[in-house]
Amino acid sequence: MTIPDAAAEAQPEAGRTRRGGRAAKRGGGAGAFDQPPFRQLTVPFPPTEIVSEDELESIHLASLRVLKEIGIEVLHDEARAIMRRHGADVREDTHRVHFDADMVLELIAHCPSEFTVHARNPAHNLRMGGNNIILAQIASAPNCSDTDHGRRPGNQADFRNFVKLAQMHNIIHCLGGYPVEPIDIHAGIRHLECLRDITTLTDKTFHIYSLGKERNQDGIEIARIVRSVSAEQLRDEPSCFTVINTNSPLKLDIPMLEGVIQMAAHGQVVIVTPFTLAGAMAPITVAGALVEQNAEALAALAFAQMVRKGAPVGYGGFTSNVDMRSGAPAFGTPESMKAQLIGGQLARRYGIPYRSSNVCAANTVDAQAAYESVFSLWGCIHGGANLVKHAAGWLEGGLCCSYEKMMLDIDLLQMVAEFLTPLDLSEDALGVEAIREVGPGGHFFGSPHTQARYKTAFYSPIISDWRNYETWAQAGGPTSIEHANRLWKERLKTYEKPPMDEAIREELDAFVERRIREGGAPTDF
Amino acid sequence: MTIPDAAAEAQPEAGRTRRGGRAAKRGGGAGAFDQPPFRQLTVPFPPTEIVSEDELESIHLASLRVLKEIGIEVLHDEARAIMRRHGADVREDTHRVHFDADMVLELIAHCPSEFTVHARNPAHNLRMGGNNIILAQIASAPNCSDTDHGRRPGNQADFRNFVKLAQMHNIIHCLGGYPVEPIDIHAGIRHLECLRDITTLTDKTFHIYSLGKERNQDGIEIARIVRSVSAEQLRDEPSCFTVINTNSPLKLDIPMLEGVIQMAAHGQVVIVTPFTLAGAMAPITVAGALVEQNAEALAALAFAQMVRKGAPVGYGGFTSNVDMRSGAPAFGTPESMKAQLIGGQLARRYGIPYRSSNVCAANTVDAQAAYESVFSLWGCIHGGANLVKHAAGWLEGGLCCSYEKMMLDIDLLQMVAEFLTPLDLSEDALGVEAIREVGPGGHFFGSPHTQARYKTAFYSPIISDWRNYETWAQAGGPTSIEHANRLWKERLKTYEKPPMDEAIREELDAFVERRIREGGAPTDF
Q: Where is this region: Disordered (chains A, B) (predicted)?
């Protein structure tokens, strides 16, 4: 099932070869720096199937057994009532709900396979599903860091800086949540201040936390205001999303279920992501963790369809392993890559857009941060991820949003985007005449074929230091983290606020101020 | 065409799940350290096709036009004579040889699609082609470095250390050449000393440089001596390989052609790898560079088949781009990844084993070294590479063999190997009973399903630091390069020489000493 894309004409062109660095459109404030233009990314090859159809079916069937025989603990009274009305076997004494396979499969068949997520700037609308990929900034880090001032708890000043970096960089398609948790804002009004910042400092689409009904409702209203549409139009045009992390194993708590109800009822996107770390909240085997992931995902996705048939959703995979010595979660591991690929196979089996992540467990921007992240991106791309959460900035297993990691990830993502850009195979690009002209033993540097293309032929990385060893050593031997540190400071200075209609700004402020006066939202979630 | 694998029973078992770290066989000297056992790696999914069949055909046809219309400059008289005898259009005045498409395709149809490369220890035999991957150590770096003593020109002591590390680590399947060039050994006898070291310090298969007929002949004789087989048996059992880098564009020099003649005539493996850097020795477009790569590869591969039908060969791709500001080669770039994938499609089109590389342009083991390397490995795995040269140790675009990068790469390769290991999807691994037992809201740490598996469930990285931030910071905040530095020193101390029959050792020494007395090989190559 595909939601018709009414705003297709407003979509950024999924055009051909765009290059980075010197060659491309300028970002941030006009003329601030060069970067590839904002565009909808697509993957030009099919995802990698790492298990056979039969093997996939064994995971699918095992998860249906879990739903039928073991069931899910559902803590929300209204949610259980909804489930009962849809034929689930609800046991009120234990809050345990058992789901029949047929019922689950009938319900998830209503999940749309593809839809558009609308931004207040239509040029930043995003297509979710199919072979499209959306890259979202890191979310929910309690700490942040840079190499100048070290590590510190999240705060509004850093929060705003990261939000600005998300707006400035075209490769970051949307916000993924709060890049860092600004704990200097009272929790009752934090969502109001943060969403006001996000919707004024950026014109991209964004995430709403499911931490109580009021936060969902406030977020949805803010999405409506900044897009200047009616509640009815918003319901038909998803404009924000929430991530529902189940309490693995097999538990759905009140704020989550409330989030599903509010978002689905209002036609906004629900990304269900079980938090199934193998060996901790899930079986130690990757297969077992996937069975649990799939059972939990199917239950919550089916519930979203009970709330509203056709509600836009995403199937999230976050299965990784833990360090069995410490219990700490590990990321970018071979086990998590397998889980990423199989998670994608499962999501495609159900025809649901797939969410994965760019994550690492490193404590600093060293080789480990890079290899764990690129392994994660490898899993995302070949797993067929449609939404990559935490695509930029994630360090320390998500406990820190790093300025330097943000810049490193921007470079990594731009490289991946270039890798995915279809190759020019025109007669001229095949270059037989250029080869003839240069001939055996010649050189292409000076040839007209080269001269006509050298400025735009290749992606220019922003972190990589390609100087030879001697020149590099004379310059003090800077490492990647030092380049990244220079870069975010240079770029942040050039930030310019995206335009917003004065009337919209006033309506937004009036809403936020009123809700703040009302005391915001309860903090007992 | 597949060479029958007479030694199949001697093959290491391509078995199921093997884990790293604590769980696996010990390496080096008995009990020295834990590592996954030596095994033939295979890829459990098909390679990624990044261009369509039609697009691939356009590259194929363009390269045949290059061979027909432009031709290759062939500097070796006997080689031109052989080519003429096989129907090529040879122009003696310009040394230019033009090849007919039908002739080329008829010849390369004789290339075996799969064969075994024999080591003196049959447990280290390797299968080349199909879905097998062989990982070879870095070759030919002029410099080496470690963080204790910095960067220095190659020398015999470091050469021996690197060769020992290749022997000790099961994930390094074979030597790829001289990991570092020991310039303190006279060039005339260097190959004799180096191959004596390689064949006594390791029992793995190895590379012979094609730098004049004598070096090929000496190397082949050493391969024969250490395997203790007849020349006839050796001809049927490839036991060493050479890499032929064409002088791109479109030129084959005397040592290369001599190398092809010697190796093919003796049934040893010829890996043809055009050195087609887009924008320098090849057109600036990736498509054009691939056309040139393919033309040069086909010419040299066809020549190998002229020398001996069925000679074991490999199709090498090394197409990357250059930094257009400096002309320096770049590695692990998005452009090179595309070239890796399409190179694999071309090799499979011809049914020839495919060679690629794990390369980077970084000057130190920082984030850049890691991301460029993992991007390269990504291209290798999804490109369907059968031989990954420079798999461990490569830094600075190949100008330096780094001890720390060697350890980093060993970890990366072990992670990739684990990613490729088929997942256990048995009923027990699916874990429905474990999930039932733990139930909603429970924890898997203490469950019997976890307890029975926790020691071997996951790969344990050797570089990654998974401590939490506080513990890590208290320990001084070590980065990956520091872990790598500690590791190679610890491990190298535990090296133990593999056994060699006394008679073989005497025959080897006698041969090497005689050839040294004779003056070795000419140095005017």
A: 1-39
SS3 letters across B32-55: CEECCCCCCEECCCCCCCCCCHHH
Nearest to B454 among A62, A284, A464 (CB): A284
Partner-chain residue, chosen from A72, A370, A439, that has the shortest CB–CB distance to B250: A439
Q: Which residue has the tokens 């024999």?
A: B118
Q: Residue B471: left if φ>0, alpha if ψ -120 to 50, beta else—which one?
A: alpha
State the CB neighbour count (10 A cutoff) for residue B203: 18
Query: Which residues between 323 and 342 in chain B have a beta carbon less than 8 angstroms from any beta carbon of chain A?
Result: 323-324, 326-328, 330, 333-335, 337-338, 342
Work out the number of other CB atoms within 10 angstroms of the CB of residue A497: 12
Give the pLDDT of chain A (525 residues) as one tens digit per residue.
Answer: 545 444 333 333 333 333 444 344 445 554 689 999 999 999 999 999 999 999 999 999 999 999 999 999 999 999 999 999 999 999 999 999 999 999 999 999 999 999 999 999 999 999 999 999 999 999 999 999 999 999 999 999 999 999 999 999 999 999 999 999 999 999 999 999 999 999 999 999 999 999 999 999 999 999 999 999 999 999 999 999 999 999 999 999 999 999 999 999 999 999 999 999 999 999 999 999 999 999 999 999 999 999 999 999 999 999 999 998 888 999 999 999 999 999 999 999 999 999 999 999 999 999 999 999 999 999 999 999 999 999 999 999 999 999 999 999 999 999 999 999 999 999 999 999 999 999 999 999 999 999 999 999 999 999 999 999 999 999 999 999 999 999 999 999 999 999 999 999 999 999 999 999 999 999 876
Strand order of the β-sheet with B240-244 is: B41-42, B132-137, B387-392, B354-357, B313-316, B269-272, B240-244, B206-207
Query: Which candidate in B430, B437, B483 is best for mutational testing of the A interface (most A CBs within 10 A)?
Result: B430
- Which chain B residue is nearest to residue A407, measuring alpha carbons? B367
A354, β-bridge pairs: A315
Is A442 at the interface with chain B, CB within 8 A?
yes
Query: Which residues in chain B have Cβ-Cβ distances shorter than 8 Å to A449?
Result: 283-285, 288
Contact A347, A353 (CB under 8 A): yes
- Quote the tokens at residue A140: 């929910």
Chain A residues whose beta carbon lies within 8 Å of the beta carbon of residue B343: none
Inform me whether the C-beta atom of residue B250 falls under 8 Å from chain A C-beta atoms.
yes
Give residue A161's region: left, alpha or beta (phi > 0; psi -120 to 50): alpha
- Is A281 near chain B, with CB under 8 Å? yes
Q: Under a CB-based contact definition with an 8 Å cutoff, are residues A392 and A381 in contact? A: no
Give dist(CA B172, CA B166) in Å, integer. Answer: 6
Q: Tell me the CA distances in angstroms from A478 to A203, A277, A463, B44, B366, one per residue in order.
A: 35, 37, 11, 40, 10
Chain A, nearest residue to B44 by Cα: A50
Task: Tell whether A459 lies on the interface with B, counting CB pairs under 8 A.
Answer: yes
Binary contact (A366, B366; C-beta < 8 A) = yes
Minimum Cα–Cα distance from A395: chain B residue: B469
Phi first, then psi: what are they for A446, rounded to 5°?
-90, 0
B210 token code pair: 């094609």
Taking the model in full, what pTM does it have?
0.95
Phi, psi of B499 (to 5 degrees): -65, 150
Residues of chain A with Cβ-Cβ distance to B323 below 8 Å are: 466
| Contact by Cβ (8 Å): B314, B261 | no
If we measure between CA atoms, which residue out of B239, B238, B187, B236 comes closest to residue B214?
B187
